[in-house]
Specification:
The protein is of the alpha+beta class. The protein is about 40% helix and about 20% strand.
């Protein structure tokens, strides 16, 4: 949620930056400023009346001591009138504050000045490319055919049990999934991230805290009876560890990693892009989350990008990094870098990670703060990234490493899988 300080400091700049996300912010931003002015004027009136009430209370006491009961009653009548006025003022203040909050919840984060202009994925900027590009024969199989050939993933069985988008991993397929999870967690631990095992369902306050609600409500699985939501990513419960928390600046940065299953309705998704593991309703992911002082958050973002790049290099996958344009960014992000791996059999790039800096947007919703040298509290910056999401990593590993003998397993995973080939 944008802060009032940011909006009031330079509303035209905020409106201009929101336009990079193709969001027309003039109406809501100017309305927030108007409501804030009304609220502050009402508060000033209330404060003045509170001072007047204190003065009248003293007068009543003095008049009663002097035996001037009739005059005291007149003053009491004025006090009663002022108190009624204050109730009306309090209602105006509460109403203005509620409308400000409602508007701000509907306004996305302003993009960083480093975010390029653009309408969608075609306008994202390739920042960096690396990794060996595989050369496969023309008859190379896509991962859904490889999964069937080697009996390692059963998509039809998942449909039988639950529905499309819920695959069943079998034998070496299940072992490879588990190996990837442990590899990602171990690498995060080496990088200094403290592992968390979070709940897979969260309450409404947690959804609002990280910005999934109200923006992505239709994309989340909702447990109506208990009003709980299945998590779309471990970012939600892990970042909410710091909701309503004031940290000492010496505690920063906070660095956490977590494995979780992730649940996404993916409403409206269809076509070739959702075949096999390309887009699922349930999938596994390891997430990294950082809570930083504002002046350190962009250096931390680079460290997170380096971490994800290192994972892809160890997996021997071809990768590139995209700087997302304004039209392709999420509601809450200030800047996002997507990592994609090349799927040789599908001949297309697959997104496997998003690394984002939210600056103070989530922290303001969460009331996640730290106490500085000035003894005052300040909003933290929050960051997170996939390190990594498994389905498309699995798809690329299967496709890119297929040989006549079987599917080769990258060396970094051998000690986790216990085998070096799927045959």
């Amino acid at each position: 949620m944008l802060t009032l300080a940011l909006i009031k400091e330079n509303p035209e700049e905020v409106i201009a930056r929101l336009a990079v996300k193709h969001f027309d912010g003039r109406g809501p931003i100017m309305r927030v400023i108007e409501l804030d002015k009304e609220r502050r004027e009402a508060q000033t009136t209330r404060d003045n009346q509170a001072a007047r009430l204190n003065k009248l209370a003293a007068e009543i006491g003095a008049l009663m001591k002097q035996g001037k009961k009739e005059e005291a009653e007149q003053v009491k009548a004025e006090v009663a009138e002022l108190k009624e006025n204050n109730k009306a003022i309090d209602e105006r203040v509460k109403k203005a504050e509620a409308e400000i909050t409602e508007i701000l919840l509907s306004v996305p984060n302003v993009p960083s000045p480093m975010v390029p202009e653009g309408n969608g994925a075609a306008d994202n900027v390739v920042e960096k490319t690396g990794g060996p590009m595989p050369e496969l024969p023309e008859d190379a199989l896509p991962h859904w055919d490889l999964a069937k050939k080697y009996n390692i993933i059963d998509f039809d069985l998942g449909v039988k049990i639950t529905g499309a988008g819920f695959p069943v991993y079998i034998g070496k397929g299940a072992r490879l999934q588990r190996a990837l999870i442990q590899f990602f967690l171990d690498e995060a631990g080496k990088a200094g991230y403290l592992e968390i095992e979070p709940p897979y369902v969260v309450n409404e306050a947690s959804g609002y805290g990280t910005g999934q609600l109200p923006d992505k409500e239709g994309q989340m699985y909702h447990c109506n009876l208990d009003n709980l939501y299945l998590i779309p990513t471990a970012e939600v419960p892990v970042t909410n560890l710091y909701r309503d928390v004031i940290l000492d600046q010496k505690e920063l940065p906070k660095m956490n990693c977590a494995y979780s299953a992730c649940f996404r309705r993916e409403a409206g998704s269809y076509g070739k892009d959702v075949r096999g593991l390309n887009r699922l309703h349930q999938f596994d992911k390891v997430e990294i989350v950082r809570i930083e002082k504002p002046e350190n958050s962009y250096a931390a973002l680079e460290l997170m990008k380096d971490h994800v790049q290192g994972l892809l290099e160890k997996l021997e996958l071809p990768w590139h990094i995209l700087r997302l344009c304004g039209g392709d960014m999420s509601f809450t992000s200030a800047i996002t870098f997507d990592f994609e791996v090349y799927s040789a059999a599908q001949k297309r790039w697959l997104e496997v990670s998003s690394v984002s800096n939210f600056e103070s947007y989530q922290a303001n919703r969460l009331k996640c703060r730290y106490r500085g040298d000035d003894k005052k509290t300040h909003l933290c910056h929050t960051l997170n990234g996939s390190a990594l999401a498994l389905p498309r990593i699995m798809a690329a590993l299967l496709e890119n490493n297929q040989t006549p003998e079987g599917i080769r397993i990258p060396k970094c995973l051998h000690r986790y899988t216990g085998f070096d080939i799927i045959d």
